[in-house]
Specification:
Blueprint lengths: L8 H12 L2 H13 L1 H5 L2 H5 L7 E2 L14 H18 L9 H21 L8 H8 L8 H11 L11 H4 L2 H23 L4 H23 L6 E6 L5 E7 L1 H9 L6 E5 L10 E5 L13 E3 L2 H13 L4 E5 L5 E2 L4 E2 L6 H5 L9 H6 L7 E10 L5 E7 L11 E5 H7 E7 L5 H9 L3 E3 L12
Parallel strand pairs: 4-6, 5-14, 9-12
Antiparallel strand pairs: 1-10, 2-3, 4-13, 5-6, 7-10, 7-13, 8-9, 10-11, 11-12
Helix pairs in contact: 6-10, 6-11, 10-11
């Protein structure tokens, strides 16, 4: 036996002796085996620093709940939009339909997927690209730019106009059957191409497939409304808005947001993505004619600066992060000081890689989208703690809110969406005019928020 390549009896004996010889290891073992890693590593001083009073704060309506679906990016986007409606009409609370964009996203993603299949008919089925396309063709996740594309094309509706269904509250079954159908559709398109079916006939096949997708979605989610009646009452129970609207008319009237002004900034400090440059991700998107996503990569401090500027103007901020890292989920605390895993184990675990290294080695990427709605500032005007509206219901965290420490922002926030007026002239010019570097489909900056 090659002892340097194998786990030997001596290795195990040495590890055992090293472990039991240290009193701290025995205490850690008892604590973790009884309570779990995060509860044992919980630091009360770090938890205590996460107060719920803020220097700058916007006042949102009642908490929303995405339930058992990966629609966090939709909920976060709609929460930034409904805030405008609540403020404009002096409402106590208000909610936009989350089932409505879900319907159109699934339809548009299906078309996007089938277009990608038609574009890769000469690629090997076993190759990385086609395998990647087949992996998750219509998952629940998404990005701000994808939501913007949906709203520009389809508008928004109040929740009452298209309420939740069993399949929107828990998307697993619907996604599973739609994914199976689309993989079968990909098989038929590739086999038809191999049999020398013409390009026009392949496109006709795709249109028929989309008709089937529409049928499946209506069965699961109901028919999206073409128009609807609205009666909104303000805090004094007076009618603040009434009438019949199309979804596009309602967005223009009740939300009134210039979507093209709101752009995605990322902070990815990896060698392959220099700051102050724009990026896009190959084959990432949903609405085919709207050309996918576009980012400007900036240092984390710049993301904070523009987020604070927008909060000061009484507007919330969409952001994307790796939510599972250093997170006390029950208490709603994202804070590197609230958990001390490395001391618990006695060697670097959380601290074994930098932010850039975590991205490069597949340890971290954006998984969840939420909304920044408040911030505390120190004497120098620097942020110390952020208030976060989540979409996991009012029973999560503290009345549905989380807190996010500024060190956690540095490590695990990857994206914010702000009005581009808050950028410097140089940043805005780069975003508007630079040709974006195209990243591979599997790049970590192509991850979709779906927690």
């Amino acid at each position: 036996m090659d002892e340097m390549r194998s786990v030997t009896a001596d290795d195990i004996a040495n590890s055992y002796d090293n472990f039991v010889s240290d009193r701290a290891n025995l205490i850690a073992k008892n604590a973790v085996s009884s309570n779990g890693i995060r509860q044992a590593a919980r630091t009360p001083e770090g938890v205590a620093a996460n107060t719920m009073t803020f220097d700058i704060e916007v006042q949102q309506g009642d908490r929303c709940n995405q339930e058992r679906s990966g629609r966090c990016w939709m909920f976060a986007s709609l929460n930034t939009m409904r805030y405008r409606t609540i403020k404009k009409y002096n409402l106590k609370t208000f909610e936009l339909s989350q089932a409505y964009p879900l319907f159109w996203d699934k339809l548009e993603k299906s078309n996007w997927f089938l277009e990608n299949i038609l574009d890769t008919l000469d690629e090997p089925l076993s190759g990385r690209l086609v395998s990647y396309l087949l992996q998750d063709p219509i998952g629940d996740g998404g990005q701000w730019d994808m939501f913007k594309s949906l709203v520009k094309k389809y508008g928004v509706v109040p929740k009452e106009a298209m309420p939740e269904t069993a399949c929107s509250r828990n998307t697993r079954e619907m996604d599973s059957y739609l994914t199976r159908y689309l993989r079968g559709a990909a098989k038929r398109l590739r086999e038809s191409y191999a049999a020398e079916v013409s390009a026009d006939d392949l496109r006709s096949m795709k249109k028929e497939m989309l008709d089937d997708v529409y049928h499946l979605l209506v069965t699961c989610l109901g028919e999206p409304p073409k128009s609807f009646e609205v009666r909104l009452r303000d805090k004094d129970d007076k009618l603040a808005l009434t009438g019949t609207f199309t979804p596009q008319e309602f967005f223009a009237t009740a939300v009134g947001m210039n979507l093209d002004d709101y752009i995605s900034l990322i902070s990815a400090p990896t060698a392959d993505k220099p700051f102050m440059h724009t990026y896009t991700v190959a084959r990432l998107g949903n609405v085919f004619e709207d050309h996918g996503v576009r980012y400007l990569n900036l240092p984390a401090d710049e993301l904070k600066r523009v987020a604070i500027a927008q909060l000061k103007d009484d507007l919330p901020v969409w952001f994307g992060c790796d939510v599972a890292q250093s997170y006390l989920q029950k208490e709603g605390i994202m804070d590197t000081r609230a958990l001390d895993v490395d001391t618990l184990f006695g060697f670097p675990v959380e601290g074994c890689m930098t932010k850039a290294e975590r991205l490069d080695y597949g340890e971290s990427l954006m998984t969840h989208a939420m909304v920044l709605e408040g911030v505390n500032l120190d004497a120098d005007g620097k942020p110390t703690l952020w208030k976060v509206e989540n979409s996991w219901g009012k029973d999560h965290g503290r009345d549905g809110f989380d807190t996010l420490s500024d060190p956690w922002f540095d490590e695990y926030v990857y994206q914010v969406v702000v009005d581009k007026k808050y950028l410097t002239d140089e940043e805005r010019d780069i975003f508007d005019h630079e040709e974006a570097t195209v990243l591979e489909p599997w790049d970590p900056m192509g991850s979709l928020a779906q927690c």
